[in-house]
Amino acid sequence: MKNIYFLASVILMLFVSSCTSVNVYSDYDKETDFTEFKTYAFYKKGIDKVEISDLDKKRILRAIEKELQLKGLVPSENPDLLVNIFTKSREKIDVYNNNYYGWYPWYYGYGYGFGGPGYGFGYTNVTSSTEGTLFIDLIDARKKELSWQGIGVGLLSYHKNIEKKEARINEFVNHIMTQYPPVLKE
Fold first, then answer.
1. What distance in Å separates the CA atoms of residue 176 and residue 145, rounded to the nearest whole number?
2. How far is C-alpha 51 from the geometric centre of its chain's CA atoms?
3. Sign of CA dihedral 142, 28, 64, 85
4. Peptide bond into 181 cis (omega under 30)
5. What's the Cα-to-Cα distance from 143 to each of 80, 82, 138, rounded to whole Å?
6. 1: Cβ–Cβ under 8 A, 6 or more apart, which residues?
């Protein structure tokens, strides 16, 4: 019985740790030569339309700026790339119904017990969480066309602790930007 509880707790820990990850997707124009992009600027018109707090916008933009600079790009008044963001979120409701039917070991007191068919009383667990999606668009400034888009999807956590909130934003941006520049397969 202790082994079952141990196994259940290990599975729960793995599930909880997997919830903190960010699923990342990217798409790009195969005709684009990404080595030509050396400079960037933020696309203010598009960013102003994003419906999140200005503080979170600043956090996201700082994280993107850090990642782009690590990749060798520099800010410019006459950029090669325009950077735009878009966000969306949705509420997820998960219902877990744990009713037991079938073979069940019934135990009566110390040392007595037998196994047999039975019905175990279960429970229903309802949880809700917010799943967020962050889109990072890199637009070729000369052509005015989307060259690359990175998308990160993961659970959002509304922390009162600003450091944790900023760390989650940095995690989203870092995971997305690992996809840029795309590795072109020949």
1. 20
2. 18
3. positive
4. yes
5. 10, 11, 12
6. none
Do the Cβ atoms of 46 and 84 come closer than 8 Å? yes
Residue 184, CB half-sphere, CA atoms under 13 Å: how many?
11
Please return the burial class of 61, using the count of CB atoms within 10 Å of its CB with bins 0-12, 13-18 and 19+.
middle
Specify the 3-state DSSP secondary structure of 31: coil
**Is residue 58 a contact partner of residue 47, using CB atoms and an 8 Å limit?**
no
DSSP state of 52: S
Distance, CA of 138 to CA of 141 (rounded, Å): 9
pLDDT in tens, the chain (186 residues): 444 443 333 343 334 444 458 999 999 999 999 999 999 999 999 999 999 999 999 999 999 999 999 999 999 999 999 999 999 988 878 777 766 554 445 544 444 445 555 555 566 777 777 889 999 999 999 999 999 999 999 988 766 889 999 999 999 999 999 999 998 665
**Measured between alpha carbons, how far is 13 from 23 in angstroms, rounded to an integer?**
19
Q: How far apart are CA 18 and CA 148, in angstroms?
A: 27
DSSP type of residue 73: -
Contact 40, 79 (CB under 8 A): yes
User: With the C-alpha atoms ordered 171, 172, 177, 178, is the resulting torsion angle positive or negative?
Assistant: positive
